[in-house]
Design brief:
Helices cover 27% and strands 18% of the residues. By secondary structure, it is an alpha/beta fold. The strands form 6 sheets. A 6-stranded mixed β-sheet has the order 1-2-4-6-8-10. It has a 5-stranded parallel β-sheet with strand order 13-15-17-19-21, with no helix packed on it. It is elongated.
């Protein structure tokens, strides 16, 4: 028991007993608070409705090992911020909340012993500490923004099942983090939670997560295995930027969108990626660097659905369209729907490439074109081919429209 605990153990036990029974004696409360203040070691406040809040300590005492007395309900905002002398702290079950910045910058704080009553760890509560292990207690609900930001000595962390969503950057910059156990089910997004965790090798993303948001796992240099559940629908900006050890990644069918924003840029060991049929690369920025697979020079295999394609260059939006076209021509119904729903975009690409052969194959495939529901996409493609001067493709499109839908205006007749 720490120095403070020895001084006030008896009074603290009496206080808690009365508090729990609902019969707190005002005189005893006043006496206890008076003793707490006279200690000249720690500072406290009695705040309604929070109870007793530990607000700090007198720095001159240089207390290295702290046992928080079991009458404290909260550790206040910035209570020990910058206390470089603090080495360890034991938090009793009476503490329900650790407020923002409570231990921020305690650069020699190595050991934190949590107890089961804790429900909330505030923003940047342990930022910059040298904690080596974070075994968070069951019952914890809120794990605040950047709670363990830049805890570079942290090796292992366990987040209990009671935590149902992540705030931003919880473990950002924990360069020594090797193992992390997460709840089986969570909700919402993961945004820069594990960015710059350079020692993390394996990550199992909890079921229920909807989006891998910005900077989710960027600069995880050692990451070799990542499991993405089939609840994720979107992967965002720089999610896996410079994950240099990642050789293969499986993107489940639930993912419908990957932002063209350096999501896998710099993954220099990436050799194979599995993508779902119908996936879209959606623009976010207008820079070369922001291509999805920029600088992934070893990437030679793309599996679209269950079909494997060999590629000479990392896939981009255009090569993705061409792979879907080939897959549709092979008879894949999902790829067929993708082509018919995006025929205008497909034909723009073929017109840009001057690819007469593939245009002829596509328009000649009844199996593929049967999914086309109207002439609007054809009209878009016809206009674009005319604008580009792709005359043969233009004529093919007009003739197909005439055979499928008939002439609708004088312009079509004149074109033929």
């Amino acid at each position: 028991m720490g120095l403070f605990g020895k001084l006030f153990s008896h009074a603290a036990r009496k206080y808690v007993a009365h508090e729990l029974s609902g019969e707190v004696n005002k005189l005893q409360r006043a006496e206890l608070m008076s003793q707490l203040r006279r200690s000249k070691i720690y500072t406290f406040e009695e705040q309604s409705p929070h109870g007793i809040v530990l607000t700090g300590c007198v720095r001159e005492h240089n207390v290295k090992d702290l046992t928080v007395p079991d009458v404290v309900q909260r550790i206040g905002k910035g209570a020990f911020e910058g206390c470089e002398f603090l080495r360890s702290i034991t938090i009793p079950p009476s503490v329900g909340v650790i407020e923002p910045n409570a231990f921020r910058g305690c650069k020699n704080l190595e050991t934190v012993r949590f107890s089961g009553g804790l429900m909330m760890i505030g923003t940047r509560a342990f930022e910059g500490c040298c904690i080596t292990e974070a075994d968070l207690p069951e019952g914890l609900v809120i794990l605040g923004d950047r709670a363990f930001y830049n805890c570079t000595e942290l090796r292992r962390a366990r987040v209990p099942e009671s935590v149902k969503s992540f705030q931003n950057g919880v473990f950002y910059g924990c360069e020594g983090l090797e193992e992390v156990a997460l709840p089986r089910v969570m909700h919402g997004t993961i945004c820069n939670v594990f960015a710059h965790c350079k020692s993390l090798k394996t990550l199992i993303i909890p079921y229920g997560i909807k989006s891998l948001a910005d900077w989710c796992m960027e600069y995880c240099d050692s990451l070799t295995d990542v499991y993405i559940p089939d609840t994720v629908t979107k992967i965002c900006n720089r999610a896996f930027l410079y994950c240099k050890s990642l050789k293969y990644i499986y993107i489940p069918d639930s993912v419908r969108e990957i932002e063209v924003a350096a999501v896998f840029s710099g993954c220099s060991s990436l050799e194979k990626v599995r993508l779902p049929i119908g996936i879209r690369f959606t623009p976010r920025f207008d820079k070369d660097f922001d291509r999805v697979f920029y600088n992934c020079d070893k990437l030679k295999t793309v599996v679209l659905g269950s079909h494997s394609f060999s590629v000479d260059e990392p896939p981009d939006e255009n090569s993705l369209i061409l792979m879907h076209t080939e897959l549709a021509l092979m008879g894949n119904p999902t790829a067929r729907d993708y082509i018919c729903d995006n025929l205008g975009e497909v034909m723009r690409l073929l017109a840009d490439r001057g690819d007469i052969a593939l245009t002829e194959r596509l328009l000649g495939s009844e199996r593929v074109m049967a999914g086309l529901r109207g002439a609007e996409q054809l009209d878009t493609a016809i206009d674009y081919a005319a604008e580009k001067g792709a005359h043969e493709i233009y004529l093919m499109l007009v003739q197909y429209k005439q055979s499928r839908f008939g002439f609708e205006n004088v312009g079509d007749r004149f074109a033929l």
